[in-house]
Amino acid sequence: MNRNIGKLIQMNDSAFYVFDIKELKNRIAYLKSKLPDVSLCYAVKANPMITGEIMDDLPRFEICSPGEARICQRLGVDTEKMVISGVYKTPAFIEETAADPDFKGIFTVESMRQYDLLCALSEKYGRTLQVLLRLTNGSQFGINASDIEEIIAKRENHPGIVLKGIQFFSGTQKTSLKKFARELSHLDQFLIHLKETLGYEAEELEYGTGFPVSYFKDEELDEDALLDGFTGILREMISHPKITLELGRSIAASCGRYYTHVVDMKQNKGQNYLLTDGGMHHIVYFGQHMAMKHPFLSAVGKETPENGTSWTICGSLCSMNDIIVKQAVLPDIEVGDVICFEKTGAYCMTEGIALFLTRDLPALYIQREDESVYCIRSTFETEELNMPEYERI
Ligand SMILES: Cc1ncc(COP(=O)(O)O)c(C=O)c1O
Question: Residue 353, Cβ neighbours under 10 Å: how many?
Answer without folding.
Answer: 15
